[in-house]
Amino acid sequence: MSLISCLSEGCNLWIMDSINSSDSLVGPSGTSGAEIAPIGALRDSSRASSPITIALIGLRHIIKHATNGTPHMADWRPILKRRDSGFPRIMGVLNVTPDSFHADSRVEGIENAVEKATSMFEEGAEWIDIGGESTRPGAVEVSQEEEARRVIPIIEAVRDELPEAGISIDSRREYVARMALDAGADMVNDVSSLGDSRMADLIVEAECPICLMHMKGLPSNMQENPTYGDVLEEVRNGLISTSRRLIERGVEPSNVIVDPGIGFGKLLEHNISLLSSGRSVVPSDEMSLMWGVSRKSMFKQMLGRDLSEDRLAGTLGVAAMAKDKGVDIIRVHDVREHSDLFSVMDGIG
Fold first, then answer.
1. What is the pLDDT of residues 297-313, one digit of tens each?
2. Which residue segments constitute the domains of the chain, with CATH numbers given?
3. Which one is predicted more confidently, 159 or 30?
């Protein structure tokens, strides 16, 4: 039986004849060799963010099996935290939508999507965030079936092409997230913070990382005069309440990322307060912090840039603060420019 077919059929135990650079998967239990170690222990020491691969399949996505036969997602936590240099990991945006606010982030067709994802990965993105529903202010919902139709073939193709990349599914629906994880995604980016009551069940079952984002209202109405007493306190309390639903069911805090939701039910003063506060919004030190500010309308208000195409400089200005604010992951449209920014800042010290 081939490795791929056995994985798809759920073999309970695989063994490995060594953990050196020549590692090979030799078969199910009963053949010679040592029992496979937890995937998190089998890292390629030559590159901190690169998994060992077997038959061109990244070990980070191969399902692990506990002694009781229960499947577990591979461990991606090392790249949920910022780099040793203190700069954040880069997540590149891949929108399989016709109406996302920044046109250059949209892709159409599998070939185009894979080309875009590959380019972002080569430019320095360690995560590719794939979404099939626009959540810009005023966006109209699409059906979960349509959302899945858009993203699942793309995730499968990107997974095949980029076995070492982390893939995030940007969805607020358990139906789509479950199909995406089965197709090769490694993390769920949920802008509704468990708004789908079934999403928590999926995260507990899959043991995969999840990003919980704060949003006041829904995309269709979230920017209709949002008000707060103390925005930092309210957003943090909201993230505490949502993350507790997972932690109390056994989810490791290190598998939880929180996002203050810049532009999601916030006015400019709210966005500035949340960005200035950095990690103060994070419920636990063990959790990661993600920022998603790329080319958003706050730069229209701050700089007078009406078009998203003209907001790169403002975006990079915020990104330059990310290290000092303790940001772990930064979600961006322009990977190369952010990678260059962090490299130059790191070089200067």
1. 899 999 999 998 999 99
2. 3-72 (no CATH), 77-348 (3.20.20.20)
3. 159
pTM: 0.79
Q: What share of the chain is helix, strand, coil (3-state, %, to 5)?
A: 40, 15, 45
Which residue in 216, 296, 305, 323 is the catalytic one?
296
- CA dist 14 and 254 (Å) reads 27
Structure-token pair, residue 260: 């203050």
In this structure, which amino acid lies at residue 246?
A: L
> Is 296 an annotated catalytic residue?
yes
Which 3 state secondary structure label does DSSP give 167? Answer: strand
**Long-range pairs, 142-147, Cβ under 8 A, ≥24:** 144/173, 144/175, 144/176, 147/171, 147/173, 147/176
Q: Report the distance separating Cα 332 and Cα 293, nearest Å.
A: 7
Q: Give φ, ψ of 57 to 5 degrees.
A: -110, 120
Using CA atoms, how far apart are residues 344 and 340, in angstroms rounded to an integer? 6
CB 270 within 8 A of CB 226: yes
Q: Which of 89, 150, 295, 331 is catalytic?
A: 331
For the question of residue 331 being annotated catalytic, the response is yes
